[in-house]
Here is the input.
Amino acid sequence: MKRRRWIIGLLWLLISVAPALAAEPAVREVWVTATVSDPNPYAGQQITYRFALYQSVRVTDATFQPPAFDGFIAKEIADRASRRETIDGREYVVTEVYYVLAPLAPGAHTIGAATLQLGIVRPDRQRRRTPFDDFFDDPFILRGRVEPRVLKSQPLAVTVRPLPPWDGPLPFSGLIGEFDMTAAIDNTRLKVGDSTTLTLSIQGRGNIADAAPPRLAMPETIKTYADAPDEQIELTADGYQGKRSFRTALVPVQAGDVPLPGARLVYFNVVQEAYRTLTAPLPALSVAPGEAAPAVPPAAGPAAAQPEKSEVTFTGRDILPPREDLTALTPHRPLTWPILLLGLLLPAAGFGATVLIQQARRMDRHPVARMRNRTRHAMKTARAQMAADASAFLTALYQALTSAIFARIGRSGEALAWKEAETLLCDHGVDPELSRQAAELLTQIESSKFSGARISREERERLLAGTRQMVRRLIP
Here is the structure.
């Protein structure tokens, strides 16, 4: 009887404990997450998209497919981080992929799910171990079966806010982020005609590549000669950051103390969520008169006042050599008119040909001609690569459109951001609507290039036709 009660009690205990054991959650082996650094950014503000893989088992053949990033300009950070993290007493290897995103327009956007295909390495329990297994146990050699898995991250909702209106006296620079500005002059004590260098540097985090120098109203007594900007910009997990420097040669043309205007720049601070004005004062220039050409000193002494006179005597000698033979009396035939005209026209024709060749070479070196040729070659490359290589096709379209923009404004260049392209075109008298359309097309090409998503043939044909039409409107 006691034995029966003991058995019944044991069965009751097993029945009571079984549901509790079944309710315990299974330990997760692998999973993925996706987050953004700021789900409510401003238009043009840089945010960071983070995709992370957590694994506590060995995996192989991992293939990552990022989302389309519709409504954003996306750029992947090349360096992928890997670290170890302990969660609920279990150690995981965490692999992270980062993208820097810049929203194109205000409104509600959805970043789709990212997909990761991989295989989980399961030990083969049916295979009998041998004494050599421990000796040849290499973690880089797969031993066992591979279980395929497809992991997807959750979609992310991002609400992009428009920038508040700006009505200050200075123009908005278009910079969005956190920035600072410094100014320096190599030498403030000059002579007329000497040169000194003014360096304006803008540094910080944000769309630093779009930074342009603030306009300085220099006095008329100072001639300015701008140099190409110098930049040190890097892409990090916090976005683009670095410095862009602008150097200008200053040449005074009049003596005196010349005060210089301070540099001022307006940008939008994303931390303070307000417009801020950067100020960099400039020192005055002290300009001395230039050195005059040295005069020839007069001769010293009383004899220098009157030149010494000497008596002129006639020697009776001819300064020409004598001709004593009969050939000295032989008459020479005069030049005919055709020969005379030919002798006059040949040098003129040679001079004209030289001038034409120099002008042709000068035209080839002109920024407009150079950018036109680059546009033509890039469009030819885009047509050739449309069905072959999507990346080369989009790169050629980007080069063709940016070269056409540079040709329209009469400058040389390699790359343009969409905001900078619109601003430059408007500043050079291009219709604002055409400037906006060119910037939007540039944004579409960049978005297709950096998103990593496959684009259909119809989309490629549409981009090619739109770029061809825009190029003709910019440089007819």
